[in-house]
């Protein structure tokens, strides 16, 4: 790993400098993670007096549990939809802002602030808009003959959380797409224009391929976001319901562990989620290292 | 812009205006709701234009709260959120600066190991290890305290990486010159490295302040005493009233107040915000 050519000779000082970060990491990150792994292999008796080591029983039971498999499916639908919706909308907006000359600062300001809105607040905003008794969206949908009720209809509930989660993520994707678009050399699009390529052709054959590093980066970040940072949105809108229709994995860990008090199963779920994060982070970093080389 | 196409320009603006409307509308609706009285929501549809109760609703929420929902006055919760967001941001920046300094400017055994331990925190978001983390905090007796609310969130791999990246770009000559002039490592850090990192620190502060402000799950778990409620988690308690419809006008006043501080930070420090966001994530 890289350091400076010349370094300070102190022996003790670097450890002291690292101590606070490492202490917090070990106590609040590594130790709990180890505990989660440990208790995922154990069963606790109902009174909490003794625990027995049961190998992979928690995992076996978990993957045989239809509500867990349902949750895996819901998470996949949710994550893919949020990623596609949030990324396509923000790409469209970013391309538009990139075309505008004078007012682009104004548009950017108006589009980026949802980044600062807490997920749970986003959930409440959309829950209010889609409230079956007083919300404006169900009122308009009734005009179209749709009887919106996400308290009863599972697919309505899923749509609601997808829209709310995408809304929050648009600002983030937008900023990265704008940054990506600005690094596409103007000379290439000008050359293509001279050769007679129209704006749409230029976008799909030149700009979009050159944007692929940004797109790939955002793909990973968005999947990560949809899977792990949307707890507040789910909690404020549907609480995983109705009938498990929006019970995504990260919400289920919380619900099973804190509300259901099923420690073994919740620990096994935590470990599965950790493996997913590790995989996503590994993909992200491998790709970034490759990009640095050229 | 390569060529002039009036229709496409028109379409561009149309897309952007529709985009802005989609982004702004939910918040506009919340604002409108927060300016009405209680009776205005019984008609079956939310009002679309502001009402007369703006000052009264906000004053009520700020000074009294809703005691039936177990929510303290909002100014207490806003104060808590502010304190917590600042502690988290300052704490993360401080310990990350120190550890990045150690990793870049010193050679010592287990340096790589330390780097990896910090790196691993990226892969362990609070959400996936809540129960054991909660247990650690409970065993240390940190429930219902600012320490318990902030300390477990303070480790930061991204901030450490950002400072490491930045320190690596600082020319070696600077440090050599400082050493020739007799500056020790702490003096070099304080008088040269810190002033050079000022913009990075500011940009990171904006991002981390928002990160701290929007925390929800963690405060929800570690606080049972309403004196330590943060505004983001307090709102959920307001909205989740057991008996039927919540008092929309008051809930939305609280929502507006909870949203305002971080959103203002983004709007007024947009340059730093964009820099912080784009650079920390790379």
From TrEMBL, chain A:
The chain crosses the membrane at residues 12-34, 76-95, 107-129, 157-181, 202-221, 267-288. The keyword rRNA processing does not apply. InterPro entries: MetI-like (IPR000515), MetI-like_sf (IPR035906), UgpAE/MalFG_permease (IPR050809). It is found in: Cell inner membrane; Cell membrane. Residues 72-284 form the ABC transmembrane type-1 domain. It is a multi-pass membrane protein. One of its GO terms (cellular component) is plasma membrane. Keywords: Cell inner membrane, Cell membrane, Membrane, Transmembrane, Transmembrane helix, Transport. It comes from the Bacteria. One of its GO terms (biological process) is transmembrane transport. PANTHER family: BLL4140 PROTEIN (PTHR43227), SN-GLYCEROL-3-PHOSPHATE TRANSPORT SYSTEM PERMEASE PROTEIN UGPA (PTHR43227:SF9). Part of the ABC transporter complex UgpBAEC involved in sn-glycerol-3-phosphate (G3P) import. Probably responsible for the translocation of the substrate across the membrane. This is sn-glycerol-3-phosphate transport system permease protein UgpA.
From TrEMBL, chain B:
It holds the Pfam family BPD_transp_1. Gene3D superfamilies: MetI-like. Keywords: Cell inner membrane, Cell membrane, Membrane, Transmembrane, Transmembrane helix, Transport. The keyword Ligase does not apply. Its main location: membrane. The chain crosses the membrane at residues 7-31, 82-106, 113-131, 143-163, 200-218, 248-269. Residues 78-269 form the ABC transmembrane type-1 domain. Part of the ABC transporter complex UgpBAEC involved in sn-glycerol-3-phosphate (G3P) import. Probably responsible for the translocation of the substrate across the membrane. The complex is composed of two ATP-binding proteins (UgpC), two transmembrane proteins (UgpA and UgpE) and a solute-binding protein (UgpB). This is sn-glycerol-3-phosphate transport system permease protein UgpE. It comes from Devosia riboflavina. The gene is ugpE.
């Amino acid at each position: 790993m890289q350091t400076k050519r010349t370094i300070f000779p102190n022996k003790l000082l670097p450890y002291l400098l690292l101590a606070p970060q490492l202490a917090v990491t070990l106590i609040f990150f590594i130790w709990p993670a180890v505990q989660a792994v440990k208790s995922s292999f154990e069963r606790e008796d109902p009174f909490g007096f003794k625990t027995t080591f049961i190998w992979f029983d928690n995992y076996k039971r978990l993957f045989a549990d239809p509500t867990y498999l349902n949750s895996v499916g819901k998470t996949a639908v949710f994550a893919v939809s949020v990623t596609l919706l949030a990324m396509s909308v923000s790409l469209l907006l970013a391309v538009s802002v990139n075309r505008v000359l004078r007012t682009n600062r104004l548009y950017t300001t108006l589009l980026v602030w949802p980044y600062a809105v807490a997920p749970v607040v986003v959930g409440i905003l959309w829950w209010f808009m889609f409230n079956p008794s007083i919300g404006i969206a169900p009122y308009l949908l009734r005009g179209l003959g749709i009887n919106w009720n996400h308290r009863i209809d599972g697919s309505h509930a899923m749509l609601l959380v997808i829209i709310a989660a995408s809304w929050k993520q648009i600002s983030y994707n937008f900023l990265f797409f704008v940054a990506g678009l600005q690094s596409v050399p103007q000379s290439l699009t000008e050359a293509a224009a001279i050769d007679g390529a129209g704006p749409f052709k230029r976008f799909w054959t030149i700009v979009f391929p050159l944007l692929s590093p940004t797109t790939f980066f955002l793909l990973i970040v968005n999947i990560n976001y949809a899977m792990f940072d949307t707890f507040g949105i789910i909690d404020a809108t549907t609480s995983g319901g109705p009938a498990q229709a929006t019970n995504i994995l990260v919400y289920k860990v919380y619900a099973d562990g804190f509300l259901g008090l099923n420690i073994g199963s919740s620990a096994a779920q935590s470990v599965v989620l950790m493996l997913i994060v590790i995989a996503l982070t590994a993909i992200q970093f491998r790709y970034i290292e490759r990009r640095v080389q050229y | 812009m390569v060529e002039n196409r009036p229709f496409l320009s028109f379409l561009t603006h149309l897309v952007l205006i529709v985009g802005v409307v989609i982004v702004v509308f939910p918040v506009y609706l919340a604002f409108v709701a927060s300016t009405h009285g209680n009776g205005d929501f019984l008609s079956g549809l939310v009002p679309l234009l502001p009402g007369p109760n703006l000052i009264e609703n906000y004053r009520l929420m700020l000074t009294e709260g809703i005691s039936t929902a177990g929510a303290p006055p909002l100014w207490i919760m806003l104060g808590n959120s502010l304190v917590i967001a600042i502690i988290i941001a300052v704490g993360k920046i401080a310990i990350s600066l120190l550890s990045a300094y150690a990793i870049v400017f010193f050679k010592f055994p287990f340096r790589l190991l330390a780097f990896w331990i910090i790196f691993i925190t990226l892969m362990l978001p609070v959400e996936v290890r809540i129960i054991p983390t909660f247990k650690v905090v409970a065993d240390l007796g940190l429930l219902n305290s600012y320490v318990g609310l902030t300390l477990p969130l303070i480790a930061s791999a991204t901030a450490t990486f950002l400072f490491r990246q930045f320190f690596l770009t600082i020319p070696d000559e600077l440090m050599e010159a400082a050493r020739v002039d007799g500056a020790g490592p702490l003096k070099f850090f304080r008088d040269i490295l810190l002033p050079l990192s000022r913009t990075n620190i500011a940009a990171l502060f904006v991002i981390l302040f928002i990160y701290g402000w929007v925390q929800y799950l963690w405060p929800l778990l570690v606080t049972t005493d309403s004196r330590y409620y943060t505004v983001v988690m307090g709102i959920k308690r307001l909205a989740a009233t057991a008996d039927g419809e919540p008092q929309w006008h008051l809930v939305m006043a609280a929502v507006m107040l909870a949203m305002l501080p971080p959103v203002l930070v983004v709007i007024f420090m947009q340059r730093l915000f964009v820099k912080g966001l784009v650079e920390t994530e790379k």
